Structures are given as structure tokens and as C-alpha cells.
Amino acid sequence: MFASIPQILLLVAHLHLAATAYGQACGCSSVVVPVHVNTLLAKDPTDPFGGLESNATALRRLNETYDIFGVFCAPTEKTAQSIDVIQLLVHGFTYNNEYWSPKTEEFQNQSYTAYACDRGLSTLAIDLVGVGKSTRPTNASDVQYATDSAVVSQLARHLKSASIIPGVQPFNQVIGIGHSAGSVTLIHEAITEAERSPFDGLILTGQLIFQPGELVLSGLVSAREDTPIRWGSLEPNYITEGSRALFYPSDTTLFSPRMLVYDNFTKDVGSVSIVPGISISSLLANYTGPVAKVAGLRDQAICYNTGRCDDLAALTALERVLWPKAKSFEVVLTEGGHCMNLDFLADGAFSAFVKLVKQFAGLQ
User: Fold this and answer.
1) In terms of pTM, does the model score above 0.85?
2) What's the number of domains the chain is made of?
3) Domain region containing 198
4) Contact at 8 Å (CB) between 355 and 332?
């Protein structure tokens, strides 16, 4: 569905204001990092485990270099922690880097990058392969969790070994923060890399264990049919969401109605291969760093009215089973919805993220 002309004009006005309002506590730069991906993908893009439980005959090799777009933000006043630690921010399905910092003045309180900068922490928010300003393969089936996992792993290594922009030294520690499908990307990386993972901690938001077929996503449509003016040339296996209402609290007083308009207007695409691969979250990871999961009690997809988040101790014990070698593991419950960055309760989630990052990095 297209936005109305008044809505478009309002959003354009907000985007104009963002030139002075966005990242006032930060120095932010757009970056493009070439990343070489050499990995095995499932031949069947609907494989619920993304090829991780497939035999060799069910796999194919992907050997490509992609340009990965990101926004790097660092505090304007340098501190030891801003120099030593960076957060690699991985968006969810049909979102892009703007999930971590909506580019409008009206929604500056929904910017995690600005919140983190105010507390001395640097970030790199990326567009995954096929999304936003990063390379979009012609074949959507090339965009699988294995692809994105290889990208984030290489980026984390790059952040530790090379300057992301001139004048910025490599970082000593990289903490990965994922949202929803972005969390599953980090889980895939933790499974495949295990003790070799370059991440010094993982914060997985908007994500709990799901078995194959347990989570049913409705409202998914071919992107070229949904918005032909933007995506008419894409193959049909690039998909998007008709509405994002499920990602917000059921109580509509807890988020701005204009945020939902903005969210629908700026939505991105994803590959049809990503949806069944959420089941990767039910596989064991021998990752050895610290892990935390952050879920919203008003998350209509995983917590709200499901009963699974009613007993924090039981939930933690259940989720902990799949991380047997993790240095530490905890589940943190906040008051927000699925897209916890985008409602009026975002400060609770942001506070939890920063606390965990500093805890993992030994900054407390």
C-alpha cells in the first residue's frame, strides 16, 4: 500500500530536519566495506535450518564479494571505552540500518546509536546483503542466514584489524547486537564459528527459540507487487511485509501512530529464504563468549499472551540449554514490543543494551 501524499510530504520534511538533529552527540560517517563471502548454502531455500543440518549433496557454494553499507557512529568526546569497544548492530527482517536510528528529528528518542554515543559507546549499524544500500544479488536465494553470518563474522574481524574510517584505530572488542532475524544471523555465526567467533559478546533481541513451523508470519508479500515503484524489477522471492502493526504493543498509546506510518513507509525487503530459517534458533551453539537475550513483554510475536515469558527463571533455563559453553547467559525482559527500539518504552531496552555491553566488555 502506498503512503498518501500528505504522509509523504510530512516524512520528507522530517528527513530534512534530520540533517541537523540526527546524531548530535556523535560523529557519524557512512561507510562501505567490501566483504568476501565463501560459504555453503542450502540448495533448498526453504530449508528450516538454513543448511546447517544438511548433507553435502544438499548444499551449494557461494563465493562472492559484496559491498556492505553501514553507518559508523562514535562519541564526539573520545574515552577509553569508545576507542576499545564497538557494537555491530544487525537489523531484523525487512528493516535496514535505520532501525537503530530513524533518520527523523521527531523520532530521535528512538535512536539507539545516539543513546549509546551519549554513554561513550561506538556503533556500526549495517545493511545486510540484499538490503538497503548494500549489494543486492539478482538471485534472492543467495541471501540466506549463512550469507549474512559470513558477512557479520568478516565485519567483526575487520573492525578488530583495520580502520573503519581514517583516524579511527581498530577496536579491541566487538559486541554483536541483533534484532529479531538479525539475532538469528548472530546465532548462525555462533553455531558455525563457535570458539573461533570474533565477537566478544552477543546480545540477541526480539528472539527466542522457535521450532520448525512454530512461528507463522502472516502478511508477507512479494516486494515487487507490494511497491512496484520501488521494487518492480526484483525477482518475486524478494519479499516484504504488508503491515508492521504486530511489531508494536497492542496498546496503541505506547507508540506514536506516526512511527508506524514512518515504519511502513521506510520498510525494506528480505529474502524468502530467511523466514523458515528462524528455526536455526533451536540448534545448539558452542560459542564461548557471554550471551544475553532481551525480550519485550509486549512483544506480540513472542511474549504477549503466549505465557512463555511469564516465568523468567524457567525461560532462562530453557534458553540456556542451547548455549552450553557460553561464558555467561541471561534473559532480560523489558516492557516494550517486538521492535523495542521504536515505541515509547525504548529507554528501558536501550538501558539494558548499554548495561550488557559494558558488562561483557569489562567496563563496569
Assistant:
1) yes
2) 1
3) 5-360
4) no
Q: How far apart are CA 280 and CA 53, in angstroms?
A: 10
Residue pLDDT, tens place only, 1-56:
334 333 333 333 333 333 334 446 689 999 999 999 999 999 998 899 999 999 99
Non-local (6+) Cβ contacts of 362 within 8 A are none
Nearest to 5 by CA among 205, 319, 261: 261
How far apart CA 45 and CA 143 sit, in angstroms, is 9
List of residues 6+ apart from 98 with CB closer than 8 A: 132, 266
Cα Rg of the chain, angstroms: 19
Cα 191 from Cα 185, distance rounded (Å): 10
In the numeric block, the cell 521450532 is attached to: 211
Find the CATH number of the domain harbouring 190: 3.40.50.1820
Q: How many helices (H) does the chain have, and how many strands (E)?
A: 10, 11
Contact 303, 332 (CB under 8 A): no
